[in-house]
Amino acid sequence: MNVLAAGAGVFKPPDPDGLRRHVRDNKERRLVSKVMSEREAVERFVHDGDYLVYDCNTWVRGPSSLLREVIRQRRRDLWIGAKFTAHDATLLVAAGCVSRIDVGWMEAGRVIQEAMCNEQLQLVEWSNGALTYRLLAGALGVPFLPLRYLGGTDVFRASGAKLVDDPYTGQPICVVPALNPDVALLHVHQADEFGNARIFGAGIAPVEAAMASRRVILSTEEIIPSEAIRRQPQRTSIPYYMVDAVVHAPFGCYPGSMPGLYGADVAHLMEFGGAQAQGTMDQYLDKWVHSVSSHEEMLEQRVGTNKLDELRAQETIREGYYE
Amino acid sequence: MTESRTFTDMEQIICATSRLMEEDRLYFVAIAGPPLVAVLLAKRLRTPEIAYVVEDGTIAPSVQLPAPPFLIAASAASYRAVAWTSMNTVSFHAALGYIDYGVLAAVQVDEYGNFNSTFVGPQYERPARRFGGPGGANEIASLCWRTILMTRQQGRKFVRKLDFMSSPGFLDGSPGARERAGLPADTGPWRVVTEMAVFDFDDESHRMRLRAIAPWVTVDDVLAEMEFEPLIAPSLETISLPTDEELAALRAEVDPSGRTIRGRWITVEEEDGHVRLVQQDAPTDGA
User: Fold this and answer.
1) How far is Cα A179 from Cα A190, in angstroms, rounded to an integer?
2) Is the pLDDT of residue A70 over 70?
3) Is the pLDDT confidence value at B286 over 60?
4) Is A2 in CB contact (< 8 Å) with chain B?
5) Residue B284 — pLDDT band, cuts 50, 70, 90?
6) Domain limits at A288?
7) Is A112 in Cβ contact with B130 (below 8 Å)?
8) Which residues does chain A have within 8 Å of residue B162's beta carbon, measured at their own beta carbons?
9) Is residue A319 part of a domain?
């Protein structure tokens, strides 16, 4: 295939056979319970230097409690896939967990900018679509896929995409490398103990992320009986054999919203914004992450039941999710 | 009779954009900010049958109004859609040619409609100001048939050379440039809307062309807020002022929190069809 142009961006090299061998040797085929604490899940399945991807973001259905545990355990040198992320990337950078970000879109303020200027953080440019498409390639088990965007732009030049002659039509076409993250963090509405999971509402790419990643940690609002899964198999988004850990985490995407269950804590999001603008992220992290031992303790001591009730009441739409 | 009217620059941009919407068409809209507000306003007042997708995979929602203060984080944004899918799915629909218009906001735009939403400053590694990145704009501007861009009219935004080209317009403007870069045929930027002007693009040269101006500005006012000189259409249209109905819908229903519509205040006086600028705030530092 004739390469007409190539972006200069670094990318995690595609390795479909490496993934297959990992799956062969590590993924549990039996129906066994994978329920564990967030601490155990992150200790076992998130390592320094990992490529980490998560689905959705601080605002909606993001795995915020798992991300706080990653921060609490002081993981370092992570490379994250920031497709339509919000404050998540900033939070991880502020906590010193991240050295590289593949950018689709992220909330980018003082923290990201200072980390770049201090050479503690390297960005690689993609787009939201390109990153989810790379995950799709990873999910299909192929090393790359063609797509009809990116070309001609500085994003192309700063990415790991290539422009090639299409061997079938002869026309120029962009190709992007498959993305197979080391670990995916996903927050779901319901899962059984084995990891069969249901996500309600629009999503970004939770299914592609689960399929493409070597290790998958789910946090779930609710653990439901496996019988309930089998009675409505159409509602299963992710099957158990892709899942390594199931963490029971009601309000797991706090301060974000969980469609059908609770609204976002806008005051908390403002507090975050204020902390970033004032350069007091360390205090923010201490208050919300390091000074509490778990998500449960954070909810009890920092949020409180009145606030949780208020957030539940804020979500007035159940139609489409639970009805 | 003299009548005075006060609105923000962003309200003017949003109203002018919403009037470009064509009934019964399919739109791909940035998931928040001015593009979404413009489409919601159009659906509310003029073109109720337009449908749109957003990049989280929501197809043709019926947003509950009044919108909650932080719509992007609320399920009101995807209420009574026809489908809840994924980011890849809606990109595929755009790649197949189903989406007539993309509506996007830009930090900087050049004379060929290429635009920046990544950073401004002399050096990528040390940005004067870093922004979120293209998000879905690169694929939306590549795959939809026509792209509508929204931005403020400022010299630092209408630049000769972008600090970074996040998303494609007509690239170098040469015939077939987009196709040579692997983008679908017959696509590209269609309109650029600011508080002072609406631009289109010349069919041959692909250069930006001034097409309409707000009633309180002159062509020179517009050119003074551009680094490059656009082509100028032989007869210029006049952009209407925001109507009471539009402003009421924006402020009370579509963006009651004011997060998106806030901006530089502009006051004009209208008398016998003539519109005179009374006062306006200085440009802000905002994006």
Assistant:
1) 26
2) yes
3) no
4) no
5) low
6) 3-314
7) yes
8) 154
9) no
pLDDT tens by residue, B22-63: 999 999 999 999 999 999 999 999 999 999 999 999 999 999
Neighbours of A132 (CB within 10 A): 31
Q: What is the mean pLDDT of residues A7-32?
A: 97
Top residue of B29, B31, B53, B56 to mutate, by most chain A CBs within 10 Å, is B56
Average pLDDT over chain B, rounded to an integer: 96
Domain ranges of chain B: 2-280
Say whether residue A259 is in contact with chain B using an 8 A CB cutoff. yes
Across the interface, whether the CB atoms of B70 and A260 are under 8 A apart is answered no
* Cβ-based neighbour number of residue A118 at 10 Å: 9
Alpha helices in chain B (DSSP H): 9-18, 34-45, 87-95, 137-143, 177-180, 219-224, 244-249
For chain A, how many structural domains are there in total? 1
Per the domain annotation, does A321 fall within a domain?
no
Q: Which tens digits make up the pLDDT trace of B169-188?
A: 999 999 999 999 999 999 99
From CA A195, how far away is CA A197, in angstroms rounded? 6
Please report whether residue A153 resides in a domain.
Answer: yes
Q: Do A202 and B81 touch (CB under 8 A)?
A: yes
Could you tell me the fold of the domain covering B2-280? Glutaconate Coenzyme A-transferase (3.40.1080)
Contact state of A259 with B138 under an 8 Å Cβ cutoff? no
Does the pTM exceed 0.95? Answer: yes
For residues A169 and B123, the answer to whether their CB atoms sit within 8 Å is no
Residue A112 in any domain: the answer is yes
Q: Which CATH number do you get for residue A219?
A: 3.40.1080.10
